[in-house]
Structure formats: C-alpha cells, structure tokens
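User: Teach me something about this protein's shape.
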Amino acid sequence: MRRYLLILLAIIAVGVVDHSVQADDSSSLPTNYFGQDAEDSSSTDFSFNDSSQTPSRQKLAIPRDTPTPLEGIRWRKKKILIYMRTTDPQLKAAFRSAVKKWNRVKVIKIKWTKDEEKANIIATDSDLSAHNTNTGVGYQTSQLGETKTEYDPDTHELYKATSILDPYQLDYTNENFRSEVAQHELGHALGLAHAPEYEHSVMVPRNIRTGITKNDRKTIRLLYQ
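Assistant: First, the predicted structure itself:
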C-alpha cells in the first residue's frame, strides 16, 4: 500500500511540473500565436498617438535673410484655395488680378473656390476707418487694406487668412492701384511681412506702386521650395 502511495505522489508531482512549464514557456510558440493583429494595432496606436511623428505636426522650415521679410509662417501645401466674399465689382477685380500676379511666380497656386468652408484665404471688404492704426497699407490718415491670419506657432503652419480691402478708400483710385493693394494683402496671406521703406517690394506699407517685384518673387520661391 505504501509503495502504491509513493508512485501516485510521483505521478502528481510530474503533472504539476509539466503544467507549469507549458504555461510559462510561451517563447517556444510561433510569434503570431498571441495574434499579429495585436502587435500591429499596438504599433499603429503608437504612430497615431505620438503627435511628433505625424506629418501634420512637423515643423515647417522658414528661410532666413530673404529679400522681403517674412512673418515666420506659411501654408503647408502649395495649392491654396481662396473664396471671394466681397460683392464690390472693383474689389473683386483687384483680388482676381492679384491672384493672377502671385500665380505667375509659379511656386504656389492660388485657386478660386465657391465653397467658403474649404477656403484657406477669404477675400472680403470692410470699412477699416473705425479701427485705423496706420499699420496697414495706406496713407497717413487712411488704411486701405488689412490681413488677419490664424496659424500654429509651434509648426509655423498657416490655417486661415482673411484679406480685407476698404471700398470707401479704394473706390476712387485706379484699377492698377487697387490691384497693387490686393497684391500686398495677399502677400501677407502667403507669409510675407512688411518691408522697409528703402526696399523694392510690394510689401512696403506706404509705397506699393511697384507691384510684385523680383525680390518678392525670389522670397516666395525660397519660402515654398
């Protein structure tokens, strides 16, 4: 009887040892046993959640020492949609002329859209005399245009720009001058800053009769190439 009891205990002990080895030795199993999908989803989650790895969060390169000063921001893409919100015929013509002239740089492409929700730039009008600060395009006592931008300060990416022309100040000027004012404002919408008075640029605040210059074209190429 004692002999049979010892044999039974030995069998139980061996069974316990064998079971514990099967539970712990997962390394001997195929790599996809626990599910390759689980491993893949873990990797996908890491890539998605790590914002520094996603393309939309990459910091945009901004060149230095450009002929025309920069705001330090730009669009991530080169195809930029613009929506015409103004109904003033003269201002509409000015904006359309300005878009054509900026497109001649052949680096960025500003394209008109009828869907305001999809637009990157809004071309509109407003009476700017109510909040005149003499910081925009204009004379000592009047402001002809203004551009407001929304951007990410961490990535330097432009999200939205609104370029405004004042119909009350521009309705009695000539067609060419209105186009030059619109060129100046769209320059801001593309990421250009005001240029010093001594520079040859459409971005000089109080001397825009040159229109877009060689310096401005070179700056846009540097900014978007």
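Now, about its shape. The helical segments are 2-24, 36-49, 89-103, 167-170, 175-190, 214-224. DSSP finds six helices and six strands in the chain. If you'd like, I can walk through any region in more detail.
User: That's plenty for now, thanks!
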